[in-house]
Design brief:
Strands 2-1-3-4 form a 4-stranded mixed sheet, with helices on one face. It has one domain: Cathepsin B, Chain A. With about 120 residues, the protein is α+β, with helices and mostly antiparallel strands. Helix content is about 40%, strand content about 20%. The protein contains 5 helices and 4 strands. The relative contact order is 0.20.
Length: about 120
């Protein structure tokens, strides 16, 4: 299982595979990711089989899946990039602007870890 889905699942108290499937369902339904950019257009940049591949437990998640999680669960997700010096935080927010909670995770450039939820 991908460390991203494990991290977000732990903070939201959700099974990581269920969380992965909900995110993939969101993508497959062509729901909004960000203002001004169609989901299908984003996925075409990646691969025609993007969603099918992302459903596999061995596929790693990234920014697209983080944004989906924000939109689905109305949460801000702060990703602390601990690989760079100085460290910086990348903020993802729901496209509807409705923030009910904030998840904090770290990223090493190849691995995500949960930090906290508030």
């Amino acid at each position: 299982m991908s460390c991203l889905f494990n991290s977000i699942g732990k903070l939201l108290d959700k099974n990581p595979q269920v969380l992965r499937n909900e995110i993939c369902d969101y993508l497959q339904a062509n729901n909004k990711l960000i203002d001004g950019l169609d989901t299908k257009a984003i996925l075409k940049m990646e691969s025609m089989n993007y969603v099918r591949n992302m459903r596999r437990p061995s596929s790693w998640g990234g920014a697209i899946e983080i944004q989906c999680a924000c939109n689905i669960w109305n949460c801000r997700i702060n990703v602390l990039n601990i690989r760079e010096r100085p460290q910086r935080t990348i903020e993802f927010i729901p496209s509807n602007g409705n923030i009910e909670r904030t998840l904090n995770i770290s990223w090493t450039g190849g691995h995500y870890e949960p930090i906290s939820i508030s």
